[in-house]
Amino acid sequence: MKKLATLTTLSALMALGTLQHATASTELQISTWAGPNHGVNTIVWPTWGSWVEEATEGRVTVNVVHDMGPPSSQMELIADGVADVTWLFHGLMPGRFELTKLPELPTFEDFSSESASVAYWRTHNEFLAEANEHRGVEVIGVGVHGPGALYLTEEIDGLDDLDGKRVRIGGGIMADISNALELTGVALPPASTYEAATQGVIDGAMLTLEGLKSFRLAEVLPYTVQMPGGFYRGSFSMVINPDTWASLSEEDRAAIEEVSGERLSRLFGYMMDVVDERGIEFAKEQGNTFLELPAEELERFQQIAADLPGQWEAGAKERGVDGDAARDFFLEQLDAVESEEGLNAEAVVDQSM
């Protein structure tokens, strides 16, 4: 009888251990920035988190942590294992990221950020990933923000009026554009732009349309100058720590891959389209003025920016990538994605509503 009782107890303990193993969960720590009301934090992370939890049947969840470090340190935070997941703006790490300027180049054509982000993901996989610019982390998605605009304290009539103006820039192709326009670029994170404008440190800023609301630009920079397709775009990626990724079961990695990659990239672009519209609406409510440059000034900017694609292609070649083929592929995918079914409000979690 004693032997039977011992075996019964052992069986119960083994069953309990099996149950605990089956219900064990992993909580991914997401380091984020740009403020709690930014679309990444109200749409992207909540939606992706719900997708991950559902795909893994609750075995993997996420926890979003704000202010673990400035935007420029996010890559290091993930590589060092301080956090598991984050989003990067490549322009804040010049020298490290050069191929990522591809989707930032002016196209002078209007297209959605959702389409651009999906096309970018496909191009990243086909051409850019092999250069290993993201060494130290695993890329789980990429993104492109909407048309970059110019916000000013004073009205202008043409590009010559920008000569010498102190304008906030964030790196990447913005630096090249500001130099071409003979602006005095002031490198600042987006969240510091409002204060710099109120203190008279800058005369304007280059940022996204969503920044009119999320970074309160409409309150201090009442004039918005737009360009067809944007003066520039901005390149981002979502990354995970390699050790964290390897620690997940094969089943959970496969499940997370299903809701990351192209789907996460599409989500990022969808978010940017939504918040850009909200930024424009907010600026109009504030009584801001949207300036249209004369046709000859648009043509002049095209001439100013004409050398940028060739410069990018030359830099890509130095990193072992066929820049001409990569750019052609990106533009082809951009056209292809425009005809594909996109996301809608019912498919996402929007905590800003």
TrEMBL record:
Protein's UniProt keywords contain Signal: yes
Keyword Signal among UniProt keywords: yes
Domain of life: Bacteria
InterPro entries: DctP_fam, TRAP_DctP_sf
Keywords: Signal
Residues in the signal sequence: 1-24
GO biological process terms on file: transmembrane transport
Pfam families, alphabetized: DctP (PF03480)
Cross-referenced NCBIfam families: TRAP_S1
Identification of the protein by name: TRAP transporter substrate-binding protein
Lineage: Bacteria, Pseudomonadati, Pseudomonadota, Gammaproteobacteria, Oceanospirillales
